[in-house]
Automatic annotation (TrEMBL):
Its EC number is 2.1.1.190. SUPFAM superfamilies: Nucleic acid-binding proteins, S-adenosyl-L-methionine-dependent methyltransferases. S-adenosyl-L-methionine binds at residues 307, 336, 357, 405. This is 23S rRNA (Uracil(1939)-C(5))-methyltransferase RlmD. The keyword Cell cycle does not apply. The active site is at residue 432.
Amino acid sequence: MTTYKKKPAGGPRKQQAAAAPTAIKLQVGQIAETEIKRTGINGEGIGYIDRQVVFIPGALPEEKVRVKVTKVEAKHAVAELQMVVKASPKRVEPRCPVYAECGGCSLQHASYDLQLDMKRELVRESFARYAKLPKAPVERTVGMSDPWSYRNKAQLPIVQHKGDVVVGLFQAGSHNIVDVSGCHVQHPLTNRIVQEVRDIARDLGVKLYDEKTHKGELRTVVARVGFETGECQLTLVTRTKELSHRQELVKRMAEQVPELTSIMQNVNPARTSLIFGDETFPLWGADVMEERLGDVQFSLSPRAFFQLNPEQTTKLYNLVADAAALTGKEVLVDAYCGVGTIGLWLAPKAREVHGMDIVPEAIADAKRNAEKSGITNTRFVVGAAEQILVDWMKKGLRPDVVVVDPPRTGLHPELLQALLKTAPKKIVYVSCNPSTLGKDCGVLGEKYEVKKVTPVDMFPQTAHVESVTELRLK
Ligand SMILES: C[S@@+](CC[C@H](N)C(=O)[O-])C[C@H]1O[C@@H](n2cnc3c(N)ncnc32)[C@H](O)[C@@H]1O
């Protein structure tokens, strides 16, 4: 028997809770044993107690567990894992010493092959439930050979805590800070930069920001590493433009971490949980960090969006390219294009690429990235996909292939209708949320056949599931 305590999640986020056949009779505090039947969208185990659906963070499929009910909702309950009575042979010891407290990862207790299977199963279930396609061709999840140290960016608050300087995260609903400066999913260099800033700030007595009083200066440390170029950028986010010991801090950082190529300061004077403010200026080295994905070049300013797992991003985009199967003659749309990465990846194989994103900075970056990489057959426009693409189509644009990569909420109903009306030969759907993917494919099923679905593990050790779906006009 194994005892195991993982902080219960606040409850399932847009869960696929099967409707309970009768009213919930469970009580908060109730202790029960159950077998885990499947996995919830946040990586929890799902069991049944008195025929009620119960989400249990930390429990794995096929395990028998003893739990304590912590929350009872209309159609489901949430329970805390108290003891694993019969453990899955795929249960492993979490690598991270602060796994239970941190909450950043939720699957470290599952072996990596089980994590990949669980993610495939989540995608399968979504297609069965929402698209009514129980036999959707869902491939094996594309994983990493080494599913650790994959994140190229760390952004962490730096705070005074119990008389010391700590870089970490506040545990949800408590004043405990969890030191995550040695995080196992971060690239070691981002960890080293963060630790050096902490040590030097401690040594120099830099004034640290205090959320409660809204006083102090240095608030967040952002470290980003270029996996391809080896360049490194440190951004010090401060409340005030002034930063005590700035010169010495910058000098020591440049000496201690010779890999650094850029040190920037961003000023965020607001009482907000957003990381960055509007003003950014250089302190040392270059203003931007250079990075490459394949042949595409990116100059990244501190606020620029860039995929966090470069190794898997390349695999993801290659899957999109395979699904699009371009010959050089196609008109391609990259909807929800961000900084244009997918469109730029595919541009050499298409006649023209039209992309749009709602964030103006992303579109400015997309245009700059195209220019830097010498790509001339793309146009990127600021605006909502459901307006711009619908408008383009009304004006006669007839794309051969439409790539969509929406946020978790999925495709806007108007966009879905416009796609059905214009009927491009192919739609490639990149999704970070299997539930909305399943629902949208259910709507598109009126005219499209799901040819292939490939889950890609962009965030190992977490329950996050990304996937590429090829839809072909029937
Ligand atoms: C999952 S990201 C995809 C980014 C990009 N394809 C990539 O691979 O880096 C979703 C993008 O959709 C954008 N977005 C959100 N709502 C939008 C909307 N209604 N219309 C267009 N873009 C939107 C966000 O700004 C974000 O860049």
